[in-house]
Structures are given as structure tokens and as C-alpha cells.
Amino acid sequence: QQQQQRQHQQQQQRKHNFFAPPQSASNPEAEKRAQLREEQEAEYKKSLAEDKRKEEEKRQQKEKEREEQEMARETEKIKQQMQQEKEEMIKLLQAQVKPEPAEDETGHFTLRITFPNGEKSVTRKFSAQATIGDLWTFIGSKGFLHSNHEITASRCSVNWNDSHITLAESGIPAKLKIIVREV
């Protein structure tokens, strides 16, 4: 019986091997094909992953460019708004500039004002009762706002930010050259 069982198993094995690829000379060829398929599949997956990575990079680049354009638009909008506000402030200051004192008025101050651009230099008379604030109003009316500028002058030490004191109280000489600088 054992021998019959062995013979039966061998017959079954032969039937099974009949449908299986032969393990002779063509087996290495099948292995090569299988290996080639695996390599092709790996290359395909690698290529697919690279394509996805490139697409993601493009998407991120487009998003970055869109954000930069939006930021540039916002920045330009803010600049225009600030410029408009500055122009409105200058017009307001121009309307507030006090007239120069009359020629026969005594005790006035003659100031030579040099502006930051270096091209503009103005000589202007101010009455003795004019304040440092009035001087800043005049300077601002020329486009050089107090918030962005400072005054320097040789031969005197004055607090040019104390807008309430008069030029007479400040102790400056009757004729003085001042320089307006951007801060």
C-alpha cells in the first residue's frame, strides 16, 4: 500500500509538473523575464514618483509666485495710500504756513534751509513769535515731514522737537543756516 501511495503521489506530481513551466533550459529565461518585469515595474514607479514630485514642485512654485504677486499688489496699494496721505498732509501744512514778516518788521529771523535732496535750499524769514512748530510746518509744506526728518544747525543747541517755544525763546541767532536730514 505504501508503494501504491508513492506511485499515486508521483503521478500527481507529474501531472502538476506538466502544467508548471519546465525547470530545464527555459527556466533561466523565465527568471530573466520576471526580473525584467520587476525592473520595469520599479522604473515605472520611480518615474511616476518623480513626475508627482515635479508636479508638486510646479504647484508650490505657482503658489509662491501667486503669493508674491499678491504681496507686491498689497505693497503697492499701501505705498500709494501712504503717498496719497503724505500729499494730503503737505496740502494741509501748506494751508497752515504763516506769511513771512513784513520788510520793516524788526526782530525777525532769516533762516537758510537746506533740504535732504541737496538741490533745494530756501531762504525764509520768520517772525520772532514764530514757533519751532511753525518752522516744521513750513518744512513739511515742502514735502519733508517732521515724522521722517530732523533739523541740525551749527553754532546752536536747540531742541528742534519742542514745537511750542518761539524762535526768540530758542536762543538761535537772527541769521542761521539749518539742514533738514532724513531719519
Give me the secondary-structure topology.
Elements: H1 2-19, H2 27-96, E1 109-114, E2 121-126, H3 132-141, E3 149-153, H4 167-170, E4 175-182
In short:
The protein is α+β, with helices and mostly antiparallel strands and 183 residues long. The protein is 56% helix and 14% strand. Helix 2 (27-96) crosses helix 3 (132-141).
Describe what this molecule looks like in 3D.
- This protein is of the alpha+beta class and 183 residues long.
- The protein contains 4 helices and 4 strands, in the order H-H-E-E-H-E-H-E.
- It has helices at 2-19, 27-96, 132-141, 167-170; strands spanning 109-114, 121-126, 149-153, 175-182.
- Strands 2-1-4-3 form a 4-stranded mixed β-sheet, with no helix packed on it.
- Strand 1 and strand 2 form a beta hairpin.
- Helix 2 (27-96) crosses helix 3 (132-141).
- The longest helix is centred in the middle third of the chain and has 70 residues, at 27-96.
- The model has no long low-confidence stretch (mean pLDDT 87).
Keywords:
183 residues, alpha+beta, 4-stranded mixed β-sheet, 4 helices, 56% helix, rod-shaped
